[in-house]
Amino acid sequence: MLTEKRSSMLHGVLLIALFSCAAFYIGSAQVVRELSLSPMIIGIVLGMLYANSLRNNLPETWVPGIQFCSKRILRVGIILYGFRLTFQDILNVGAAGIIVDAIVVATTILGGILIGKMMKMDRDIALLTSIGSGICGAAAVLGAESTIQTKPYKTAVAVATVVIFGTLSMFLYPIAYRAGILEMTPQEVGIYAGATLHEVAHAVGAGNAMGADVANVAIIVKMIRVMLLVPVLLILGWWVARRAARSAQHDGSTKGKVAIPWFAVGFLAVIGFNSFDLLPMPVVDAINYFDTFLLTMAMTALGAETSIDKFKKAGAKPFILAFWLYLWLLGGGYLLSRYLAPLWL
Questions:
Q1: pLDDT of 84-107, one tens digit each?
Q2: Into how many domains does the chain fold?
Q3: Residue 299 belongs to what domain range?
């Protein structure tokens, strides 16, 4: 019986792995690469196509394997994501990037939660959308989802919002820079792009379109923003525990305990290890490639749990919230990068 259960789980994992391989193949196409769409984004789209077409024709015994990808493999992927970062990156960009990043992340997340409350939105979707907009898009949404343990469709909705507005910015920023609308130095523009673009891929795409001087700063500032995922997840874990404790007191059940997201601690530990530069660059590149595949599997699995009906259930509010946060990133990020950042450059 146990062997049959493991076999069925393996079928679900292999199915998601197959979709992920397809996502990598599609992502290698020239037109997709020019749009800077990562395999993770393609994966969630393929997963959603599966959820709304073939899902009902496959055995339910495969579902545990799909859920394994969206939970366990996701956490391993977040930990290995640390190989993309070093603490030296922080020193290279200086205090300006760190301060602007910290303000952008804090105001975007707190502001998004407040706006979501005013709009009477689903609390989890508002939180995921705010964290995705504030930190690093899909990867941040995945990390937060793993901490609060919400429903997969809510994660997919949040990812959709950051993909839409992040992709728009990736084209908007270079156009504005070349047109002279952004009256900033290349370093200031790099801080602006890195501190406000949603995905790492968006920062890379927009930065390269504006020149090497802008791209180098934009990528480093963006990666510092990614590092801020660790304290955010730790605070989020504490908040979830408090919410559970209040619920327990109301119900008269056992008091909730602080659930520390150990994968976030592992993520930070990997960054520390990577900072010593102990591994050859080809090995690190191979780890990052493998990590992208794991995260693609997680995104695909989340998409496989998301039907159109669930998107309709979420309604338009998540996209309205993401739009307000987008306006803040455009305007507030510009003011911070144009007038505040030069004080520490």
A1: 888 887 777 778 889 999 999 999
A2: 1
A3: 2-343
Number of Cβ atoms within 10 Å of the Cβ of 16: 28
- What is the spatial distance between Cα 122 and Cα 314, in angstroms, rounded to a whole number? 8
Selection from 10, 57, 7, 70 nearest residue 304 by Cα: 70
Q: Which residues of the chain have pLDDT under 70?
A: 1-8, 36, 55-56, 247-261, 345
Q: Which residues of 131-150 are buried (b: 16+ CB within 10 A; e: fewer)?
A: bbbbbbbbbbbbbbbbbbeb
Rounded distance between C-alpha atoms, residue 229 and residue 64, angstroms: 28
Q: Which two tokens stand for residue 189?
A: 């523009």
Q: What is the pLDDT of residue 5?
A: 62
CA distance 113 to 313: 20
- Among 225, 205, 227, 223, CA closest to 214: 205
pLDDT of residue 173: 92
Distance CA 158, CA 148 (A): 14
Alpha helices, DSSP H, located in 119-150: 123-134, 138-148
Report how far residue 110's alpha carbon sits from residue 89's, in angstroms, rounded to the nearest whole number.
26
- Are 47 and 19 a contacting pair, CB within 8 Å? yes
Q: What sections of 35-86 are H helices per DSSP?
A: 39-51, 63-68, 74-80
For 71, residues 6+ apart whose C-beta sits below 8 A from its C-beta are: 146
For residue 340, give Cα distances in angstroms to 92, 99, 194, 229, 336.
Answer: 18, 9, 15, 23, 5
Q: What is the dihedral of CA 150, 152, 155, 156, to 10 degrees?
A: -170
Q: Report pLDDT digits (tens) over 24-75.
A: 999 889 888 877 677 887 888 898 888 888 766 777 778 889 888 887 898 8
In the numeric block, the tokens 């640390």 are attached to: 82
Instruction: Determine contact, residues 40/291, Cβ cutoff 8 Å.
Output: no
Q: What pLDDT does 288 receive? A: 93
First to last CA, the chain: 64
Residues 54/66, Cβ–Cβ less than 8 Å: no
